[in-house]
Structures are given as C-alpha cells and as structure tokens.
Automatic annotation (TrEMBL):
Chain ranges passing through the membrane: none
Signal peptide start and end residues: 1-23
Species of the source: Arenibacter algicola
Keyword Signal: yes
Keyword Disulfide bond carried by entry: no
PROSITE patterns, per database record: LYSM (PS51782)
PANTHER family: LYSM DOMAIN-CONTAINING GPI-ANCHORED PROTEIN 2, MEMBRANE-BOUND LYTIC MUREIN TRANSGLYCOSYLASE D
CDD domains xrefs: LysM, PBP1_ABC_transporter_LIVBP-like
Alphabetical keyword list: Signal
Protein name, per record: ABC-type branched-subunit amino acid transport system substrate-binding protein
C-alpha cells in the first residue's frame, strides 16, 4: 500500500504542474576577444573538460573565436548569473524551436467568425488554414478562457502561396547525413542552395552557431535529376589526393571535367584549390549486379576505415566468399560501397528490411541538447480514490485493473526519469488522469498544445487510444501504447509495445526449428487452436497429432505408441484450458523414464499454464519452454532504485514502465525523433523487456522482440536463440 500511496501523491502533484526533470543546469557564454578556455572555466568555477564535454566544436589548446556561444554547465546545479538575459532567451528559443524566435508573418486583412456549438479551436484553425496560435494572437481572451458558443473571433488572413512555390514537397526532398569536416557552406553549395534556404528547410539548426556534427541529418532538395522515376542510384568512391595532383590528371584518371569535380566536392573551392590529403567524392562506375534479391541476401554499407579483415571477422565470412558475392572488391574496399552478404549471417549487428545496421549504444550516443517533451495519459482514477482512507484506496486499486496498471507503469516511468537525468538529459513531463472518460480525454487534448511534444505515453483503453492517435497525428506526434499489441484501425503513429501473439508464435517455431536435429515432434491442440496446429505441421512436416477426447483428456495408450525411445520427444501443447494443461502435464510426466525423454513446448503460454491446479514441478521435469514478452528479473540496480524510492519491489507493470520509458527517452535523446531513431536503432533490451519496432506498411510500429523462457530445476531461465 505504501508504494501506491507514494505514486498517487506524486501523480496528483503532476496534475497540477509540469515537471522539468533536470540533471544539470546550464548557462551560455558569448566568447569575447582574447578570452581563453581557462579564463572562462575560472569565471564560472567549472573545469575546462566540463566545458569541452558540452561544446564538441572546440578543442583543448585551440584559440577561441570571438562571438562563439558556449554551453556552460553550472558548478553546483544552481543557475549561473548571465551578462545578458536576452542571450539566454535566444539560445533557448533556438534549441527548443520556439515560435517566438522566428519572425511572425503579418496578416493582409481580417474576417469574423462566430463560434458554433461543439466547435474547437483546432477545427477552426483547419477551416481557415492557419495555426491555433495565430488565432489566439488576435483573440487574447483565448489565452485565459475556453472557446464558447457565440464568441466573435477575429481571424487573420494571409497572402496565399502558389502551390508551385511551396518550399516543401516531400518527393522532391531527401534526408542527408553530414560527413566529417563538412560545413553548412559546403553542403549548401553542393546542393545549389543558399545557407538561408538551408536554415528554412532545417529550422532546428542553431541560429547562433555554424557547428554541424558528423552524422547529423538535414532535409535538402534532391539534386536535379535524382528524382526521375526508375533511374539507377549513383554510387560514389572516395579518392585521396596525392602530392602535386592537378585537375588535368584527375580528368584523365576519372573522365570528369574540373567543373564536375568541383561541383561534387565544393570544399576544393572553399579551401582554395586541390590540396594533398583531400578526400574527393568520385562517381563509381556502374557494376551490373543483376536484380536485388532481399530474400536470400542482406546488404551492408561500408564505413570509413573499415578493412577486408575487419569485415570478414564482423560477418564470419572469408574474403573469397565476399569477393564471389561482390566482384567489385577486386578494385579495393572503399567507404560507401554496398556489399551483398548471405542471409544467414549473424553477429553483433541488427537487420532491418535486408539492410544490416551496426548496433548503436544509445547511452553513448545521446545529445544533451535534445530536450524530450513527454505527455502521460493514464487512467489513474483519482476521482474514485479517497487518499484519507487507506482501506478504501487499497480496495479500489485491487479491484480496478486500470488503476493498478497505471500506477505500476507510472512508478517505473518515474525511476526511468531519474535514471535519464543522471545522464545529463532534461525532460519536460506533463501527466494527466484520463479517468477512463473519453470526453475528459478529448478535453485534455484540446487544452494541451501538442506542438513540440516528443511523444504521448498512453492511454490504455482502445477507444481513447484511437482518439489520441488521430489527434496527435495532425501534429506528427507518436503515441506509445504500453500494454497493446495491435489495433483494429490503421494508426500510423502508434508504437505498440507488446509483441503480438503471432510474433511470439513465430519466434517459438523458429527457435525449435533451429534447435531440432531428429527429435520426435508431437502436437496436442484443442479445437480453438487448430490454426496453430496447422502452422506447426507446416513448420514440422511429419509431426504426429494426438487428438483430445470429448472429456478433454488424452488417451494414454495412443500417446504411448507414438513416443520414441531412440530420440527425445518434443510435445507442443496448444490450449487455453487449465484442466487440459493439468491432465497432459501429469500424463507426460508419468511417461518419462530412462528410455523415454519428453520435453514440453507451447507457442502461447496463457493463464491456463499458471493455474493453481497445474503442477510447477511437472512443468519443470518436462523442461517446459515457451515465448514471452518479458523475462524474470533478479536483484539489480533498477530494483534497488525502485525499492529506495517506493519502499517495495516492482511488479511486472513497473518493470515495463521503466523499460519502455527509458527506451523512449534514450531514443529521443539520440535523435529527438522517435520515428527516425527507430529506423536507425535495432533491438534494445533493458531490465525485463526488449524492443524492436518495425513499421507496418499500412499501420503503426510493432514490437517484434520477445524472449524464449524455460523451466529448469524449479527455476525459470532465459534461453538464448
């Protein structure tokens, strides 16, 4: 009861205010002429390394340029006095994408609008093709009162933009990843645009520094000709300029004119001509590779400084095998090459849509300037809880699953916020109690400004989830469904955190298929699970079927006749009836002998297997094996932190709340965009859950990661694939 009381009180406070989970306070400093890293560190009473950690564009011993804006961590967590308040505001606006940091467009006139019953500000903004903030700007009362029927609103009119002049048509633009040593000027020049256009296309770029980090992603117009339908993709090789290299010799070597080489490598012009050691981008000669076969092969893009030796070790293939699949390797390995590899290769990497991705350590990849903004929408039902009456509160929690689930998830999420703060990430959090009321949920969404929200956690119930997802999609905000594996609607912006029954069934079959040599497979399935029986027969042709009798028992003579003494017998039991699990478990346990070995499997461990009538020792003797969305956990740092915070051990929902929130925040701290991060990051795993979100063609993002667990010596252990 102590834990729930603490969580409820915490939640109640969060209803009243927004949390800013800050691990480290910062200020900024505009470098003056003659200042050094040492003098600035002394001024703010911090170490030089502390400043370097948050300003990757400067190096120790390097002279500081005047007017460079540095991020300064405070010495003791307190705010540091600034020379100019406006400087701080400008920096924060630039980092957070604050609308006030950009110039507001001026209206060319106004029109009046009388509000109707049930009309919303969102609907009016869509009707007039303007933002809600633009309506509020000219109707100041809307900042303090709700929209009501009969209000006369002043609607601004703006100059219409010809569709042909629109700055952003998706098919004409691409995502570009910044390469080492590239500058804003060189990238703008490469794409034939101005730096101002670059900033318009990428509003999150800082307005006060020109710094670009390697790997940073930018939106840029496709180079002319690159969007022609069905054209071949041009690949490029890297070429290091030797001493005394001339444009004439480059023209002879690669068949390109000097102007073409400069257009592909604007840094030549930026640095005043060809320089020894420059790495040039040269179009690769087309190699006829035939039709791309993603059924039998995976593909990997070679990274800078990788060698044939490192790649053969990474993928467990010989150089001869690599050369057979990739004949172009005879001319040497080059960064940017796309290599074909056998589908069956495994190692320290992830595969998404036949593309091999190097595993990313999210903890080492965070950007402390990213500031995630989360909104929790959960049915805490504070309207039904009397905090002054412990017995009443305890009874309400025990009898209401929605309350228990919400408090469990949220208590784990709070520990995740504490953990992410220790990594130096600040998080803005707002929490709302939906009270399991659709109208209340709609009201929260109308009141809450979703612009700039990184993600919404919840709600739990299906109807509210659909409503929230549809409204959030208007703002491009992802919605995380913590306890849901699917939806009957196409919700493109929802991340379904639970792996589906189908995913776990496939995982189980693949696991057994990879483990099996010549074991005798037997299938026992009730009428409801006949589709699973058919799927097992397709996976294991020749498997023997044992039918249940009318009383839902198995004929001992029939099963005894098909048990093998030469090899182990693997029995799949597919049922949701506890009495069937009890009977089959007892029967199989009695048939185990020195001559006969039996192991029990299922593709769906439901409540029937956890029934009180089912013998735990029988399941252990049968080494019962099954797929699971989560795993058992022991004593670890999370349990200790949770116990210290709440005075109790976490339940399964608290563990899921921690894992899901921690994963969400790490990905947002990495890319500040959950969708992009999920494309780049493969499988992640934390305390008791793992995640691998894949986009469905017609719907949202589904978790395809699960565990294989097994009973062994009266313990449940994780079995490795």
């Amino acid at each position: 009861m102590k834990i729930y009381r603490k969580v409820i009180l915490t939640t109640f406070l969060l209803m009243l205010m927004s949390i800013n989970a800050v691990a480290q306070k910062f200020t900024t400093h505009s470098v003056k002429a003659g200042e050094t890293l040492e003098s600035i560190a002394k001024r703010y009473n911090v170490s030089e390394q502390g400043i370097l950690n948050y300003n990757k564009e400067i190096k120790k011993g390097q002279a500081l340029r005047a007017n460079t804006i540095l991020v300064i961590p405070s010495a003791n967590g307190a705010a540091v006095k600034k020379d100019s308040v406006s400087e701080v505001n400008t920096l924060l606006q630039a980092l957070q994408g604050d609308e006030s940091a950009t110039q507001q467009r001026e209206p060319i006139g106004y029109t009046s609008h009388r509000t109707k019953r049930k009309e919303t500000l969102f609907g009016i903004s869509k009707q007039y093709n303007i933002s809600e903030d633009e309506i509020k700007r000219y109707n100041k009362e809307l900042y303090s009162v709700q929209l009501k029927k009969g209000m006369i609103l002043k609607i601004p009119k703006y100059k219409r933009v010809d569709p042909s002049e629109k700055a952003y048509i998706e098919e004409n633009y691409e995502i570009y990843r910044v390469q080492p040593k590239e500058t804003r000027w060189s990238i703008a020049n490469k794409y034939g645009i101005t730096i101002d256009s670059l900033l318009v296309l990428n509003p999150k770029l800082s307005k006060i520094t020109d710094y670009l980090s390697s790997g940073q992603e930018l939106l840029l117009p496709k180079i002319l000709g690159s969007s022609i339908k069905d054209q071949e993709t041009q690949l490029y090789n890297s070429y290091t300029v030797p001493a005394k290299q001339t444009f004439y010799s480059l023209e002879k070597k690669f068949g390109l004119t000097a102007n073409e080489i400069i257009a592909l490598n604007p840094e030549i012009k930026e640095r005043g001509g060809l320089k020894e050691g420059m790495v040039l981008r040269i179009p690769a000669k087309k190699v006829e590779t035939g039709e791309v076969n993603i059924e039998n092969y995976n593909f990997y893009e070679v990274k800078p400084k990788q060698t044939e030796f490192s790649l053969t070790r990474k993928f467990g293939v010989t150089y001869k095998e690599l050369l057979e699949l990739n004949p172009e390797l005879k001319d040497g390995l080059k960064a940017g090459m796309v290599l074909k590899l056998p589908k069956a290769q495994t190692g320290n990497f992830d595969v998404k849509n036949a593309l091999i991705l190097d595993k990313i350590n999210l903890r080492d990849s965070i950007n402390i300037l990213n500031r995630p903004k989360l909104v929790f929408l959960l049915p805490f039902r504070l309207d039904r809880l009397d905090l002054n009456n412990n017995e009443s509160t305890k009874s309400a929690i025990e009898n209401r699953k929605d309350v228990k689930y919400s408090l469990g998830l949220y208590s784990g999420a709070m520990v995740a916020l504490d953990s992410i703060a220790k990594l130096g990430i600040s998080v803005d959090v707002k929490t709302y109690d939906t009270q399991l009321d659709m109208n209340r949920t709609k009201g929260i969404l109308q009141k809450e400004n979703l612009i700039g929200v990184s993600a919404i956690f919840g709600p739990l119930e299906a109807k509210s989830l659909k409503e929230v997802a549809l409204q959030a999609s208007e703002y491009g905000v992802p919605v995380v469904a913590p306890l849901t594996d699917k939806s009957d609607l196409s919700l493109n912006n929802v991340f379904f955190a639970l792996p589906s029954e189908k995913v776990m069934e496939e995982h189980m079959m693949t696991y057994v298929e990879g483990l099996r040599t010549k074991e005798n497979v037997i299938i026992i399935a009730d009428q409801k699970n006949k589709p699973t029986e058919s799927a097992l027969l397709m996976k294991f042709p020749g498997a023997k079927i044992v039918a249940l009798k009318e009383d839902r028992t198995v004929d001992i003579d029939k099963i005894s006749k098909i048990l093998s003494m030469e090899t182990e017998n693997w029995v799949f039991l597919e049922t949701d009836q506890a009495n069937v699990v009890y009977h089959v478990g007892s029967l199989l346990n009695s048939l185990i002998s020195k001559e006969i070995g039996i192991r029990l499997f299922t593709t769906d461990k439901n409540k029937a297997f956890d029934s009180e009538i089912v013998s735990y020792s029988h399941l252990s003797n049968l080494r019962f094996t099954y797929p699971s969305a989560s795993r058992e956990i022991g004593e670890n740092s999370f349990v200790q932190s949770y116990r210290k915070k709440y005075g109790a051990d976490p339940d399964a929902y608290a563990i899921r709340g921690f894992d899901l929130t921690y994963d969400l925040l790490l990905k947002l701290a990495y890319k500040n965009d959950l969708v992009i991060a999920s494309k780049l990051v493969g499988e992640t795993e934390y305390v008791g859950n793992k995640f691998n979100f894949n986009k469905d063609i017609s719907s949202g993002y589904y978790n395809r990661a699960s565990y294989i667990l097994g009973y062994e010596n009266m313990n449940i252990i994780e079995l490795k694939d």
